[in-house]
Design goal:
With about 270 residues, this protein is α/β, with parallel strands linked by helices. It has helices spanning about 45-50, 75-80, 95-105, 125-140, 155-170, 185-200, 215-220, 240-245, 245-255, 255-265; strands at about 5-15, 20-30, 35, 60-65, 65-70, 80-85, 175-180, 205-210, 225-230, 230-235. Keywords: ATP-binding, Hydrolase, Nucleotide-binding, Transport.
Length: about 270
Amino acid sequence: MTESILKVENVSLAFGGVKALTDVSFEVPRGSVFSIIGPNGAGKTSMLNCISGRYQPNSGNVIFNDKIVTDLRPNDRADLGMGRTFQNLALFGHMSVLDNIMVGRHHLLKNNWLTGPLYWASPAQKEELAHRRYCEEIIDFLEISHIRKSVAGTLSYGLRKRVELARAMALKPQLILLDEPMAGMNLEEKEDMARYILDLNEEFGITVVMIEHDMGVVMDISHQVMVLDFGKKLMSGLPDEVMADPHVKRAYLGIEDDEEETVKEAS
């Protein structure tokens, strides 16, 4: 049986009287691409925020690598090997692409304000060079060498999405959380992003938890899929099994069983 890198146990979250998540539990196998789908307002981003530490659940636990991280801050979870991208881009628009990616290495720096003034005589210089080399590897991997010195705020939306993915990869995470990585992209950009996600999963060995509305992408690259509806887990399983389930069709696609039979007969 595949080991789980992430376990979510009976997580509930409410904002005042509004329940965003209700008693949600699931496990993510190490080395997998795990997609979370559901209608708008189903609680998908709220779940990612509970996993990453932006939100504190009212009850339940988040367990990462067999360690309960429910009370840890986002930066502490990053130290443990958890990376994150956002639905709304969170880049530093005035900084270069390379500098944005280097920010992702900040928590790995061992030198501090005491050794900084001795930059040339301390290990700080070698450390910075090593971090830059790793960032350059990511830049080559994501095919953004031509914009490495460009100001992030001047780039197209699709390229900025790729830069944000690069910064999350710079954390050298074991688990990466992607919130709608293909939202707002054209077909070609989506195909490129899907390929990068598969490659970072297979070549870098990074486990992926992804929220995505494009069902074609979800079906093509996911190992497992979980469906949320009104903050509750409908089901979890293989992509084909999930998409064939009548409850999922009704909640997510708006298709009733009799409608599906009518469509089949008409075709």
